[in-house]
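Exercise (ungraded).
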Amino acid sequence: MAWQVQFRVFRSSRGEVPAHFDPFTVEIKPDETVLDGIERIWAFQDRTLTFRHACHHASCGSCAMRVNGVEKLSCVTYIQDVTSDGGTLVVEPLRNFPIVSDLVVDVSPMFHRMHEVGMPIIRSAEPLGKPENFNCFENCIECGMCVSACPVMLTSNQYLGPAALAAAQRTIAEPRGVDVRSIWQLADDENSVWRCHTAFECGEVCPSNGDPAGAIMALRRRLILERIKSLFGRGILARQRGG
Amino acid sequence: MTGNGQHNTALRWGDSVRWFDARRRGLGMWAFALNRITGVLLMIYLLVHFVNISVLYLGETAWNQLMDLFRMPPFLIFDVALVLVLLYHGLNGIRLVILALDIGVAQQKRIFWGLMAFGTVVAVFTAFGLFRG
């Protein structure tokens, strides 16, 4: 039996129209998804609604958005898990990214940063080391939800962010031919590892069960050890300072 | 960060206070928000404390009168609240130092609750001691 749910959808078009929320009443079954509801709004109520989606099974990350204030992949977020019959759903774009239109954000800043840290793409089919040390970050789908959930990114648009820092840790741990000197420098920056305030929200919202905060802590420990070594003129940081 | 790597979203006043909003968020986010709030409270207390101790300049009588006032029950409740804030901020700070060394990251929630349980015991004993005089 279908439920009646009111979607309150964020609307904005590059600042041309002041941002506001449009209400849409949707008949939807509890075991359908938030993306099903948004597609139904677009199909039957408002063809100007802009949103992004592709795979419908949580592998592309393109339908990431905030549902009732929390980052979700809308294609695998079931209606019954986020509202009730007669309830309301507030749907907004990801935070900490420039808004392109309505629910679509420009995620290119995250990819530029991932590129700066070597953008490691190491498939889960080829983990190295002990299985217990295997970090799910290899399964990152680059959805940007960790960047949106991070409270520190709300206060600093200079912060490198959880996705790129976790990628930096991955590259440093297993360079596979990448020159990591610039990545060490980037990681040791005031807007990098040291800016994280350990809220763990990046890992809470990660749809791939990744652990960006854990990776940042691992990178922090590496940097602390390197800084101690550099006091005795040893280690990669000392070599960098020495040119 | 510069160039294309920058998240060129303009920071707004609303964003800079939105970190406080931990609704529907995880334990780590609540711990983070409370840590900041207790930090601000301790900062305010420090300023008040400076004002309090400056009463010493007014002489022994003024100081003793102030101390008598502080021993009254409403102020003892304030003392207990201060102990709670101190314990939270200090113990969570220890947790953050441990985690920053990459120790027990996967167990961060258990570490939090363990330290909070310890803090509760200390707070109860402190409150008992304060009211007993």
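Further reading is listed at the end of the chapter. For now, observe: Chain A touches chain B through 42 residues (CB under 8 Å). The mean pLDDT of chain A is 88.
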